[in-house]
Write a structure and sequence with these properties.
single chain, 256 residues, mainly beta, 6-stranded antiparallel sheet
Length: 256
C-alpha cells in the first residue's frame, strides 16, 4: 500500500512539475500578447503632398519629429483604406546608423530594408522634413500610405510601452500623363509632321493613325524625340483632322 502511495505521489509531483514547465514555456516562449493601442499623432508623424512622379513611382512628403523609436515603417494598402484596403508593411528604415548616399549639399538618400522605398533627407537620419518614394507602384493603381513608429512608446495610463504612434493616411494614384498633340501639318503633300507635349514620366511614345475606320500603330518614338515625321502619306489622306492622329506614352495602354 505504501508503495502504491509513493507511486501516486510521484506521479502527481511529476504532473505538477510538467504543468509548471508548460506554463513557463507559454509565458516566456511565446510571450504575453498585449494589444497595442494605436494613436494617430500628426505632430510626430505627418505625410502629405502625395503624387505620381513616374508610371511606377509614387512620392510623398513627411514630417518626422524627434522619434521615440529606432525605426520608421512605411505601410501601404493595395487599394484605398476607405474602400476596404488593408495596410501592410512595405518597407522599414532605421532612424540613425545607416549609410546614406550623398546627392548634394545637405541632401542624402537611403533605401529601406526591403529596397522598395527611398528616403530623401537633409541629414543622415530619418528625421525632419523628408521625401519618400515608393518604387514599386503600378500605373493606374491607387494606394493608401501611412507611417508608423517601429517601436512602442510609453503609455502613462498602463505604465507600459504599449502605444503605437501612427501618421495620418493619404491616398495616391499612380497616373501616367498623356501627351497633347500640338501640330499636324504637311508642307509637300507627301510628308506629315507631328509635334506633341513632352511627358517626363514616359519612356517613349507610340504613334497611331486613324484610317479606313480603324486605328493602326505606326512607330515607337524614343523619349528624347518630341517631333515625328511620317512619309509616304497619300495626298488625299485625311491626316490632319481631329482624332486622326494620336500619341501615347510607351507603356501606357491607349484607347481612342
Amino acid at each position: 500500500m505504501k508503495l502504491e502511495e509513493r507511486k501516486q505521489n510521484s506521479f502527481i509531483q511529476k504532473s505538477i512539475f510538467l504543468l509548471i514547465i508548460m506554463t513557463l514555456w507559454i509565458c516566456l516562449g511565446t510571450g504575453f500578447t498585449v494589444n497595442a493601442a494605436q494613436r494617430e499623432d500628426t505632430k510626430l508623424l505627418k505625410i502629405y503632398d502625395g503624387k505620381s512622379i513616374e508610371a511606377s513611382q509614387i512620392q510623398f512628403k513627411a514630417e518626422v519629429a524627434t522619434p521615440d523609436s529606432n525605426r520608421i515603417d512605411i505601410y501601404r494598402s493595395e487599394k484605398p483604406v476607405s474602400q476596404g484596403g488593408k495596410l501592410e508593411k512595405l518597407d522599414s528604415f532605421r532612424v540613425i546608423g545607416d549609410f546614406w548616399e550623398v546627392l548634394g549639399d545637405n541632401l542624402y538618400m537611403n533605401y529601406g530594408d526591403n529596397f522598395k522605398v527611398q528616403c530623401y533627407s537633409h541629414d543622415t537620419c530619418v528625421e525632419g522634413n523628408l521625401t519618400f518614394v515608393d518604387t514599386t507602384a503600378k500605373a493606374g493603381h491607387q494606394y493608401s500610405y501611412r507611417l508608423v513608429y517601429g517601436d512602442m512608446v510609453y503609455d502613462p495610463d498602463s505604465g507600459e510601452y504599449s502605444v503605437e504612434i501612427v501618421s495620418n493616411i493619404i491616398d495616391v494614384k499612380a497616373n501616367l500623363q498623356t501627351p497633347e498633340l500640338y501640330k499636324c501639318y504637311s508642307t509637300d503633300n507627301k510628308t506629315v509632321n507631328l509635334s506633341w507635349s513632352y511627358i517626363a514620366q514616359a519612356d517613349g511614345y507610340r504613334v497611331y493613325r486613324y484610317d479606313n475606320g480603324k486605328w493602326s500603330f505606326l512607330k515607337n518614338v524614343k523619349k528624347r524625340n518630341k517631333f515625328y515625321r511620317r512619309t509616304c502619306i497619300p495626298v488625299f489622306a485625311s491626316v490632319c483632322y481631329p482624332r486622326t492622329w494620336s500619341i501615347d506614352p510607351a507603356g501606357c495602354v491607349w484607347r481612342s
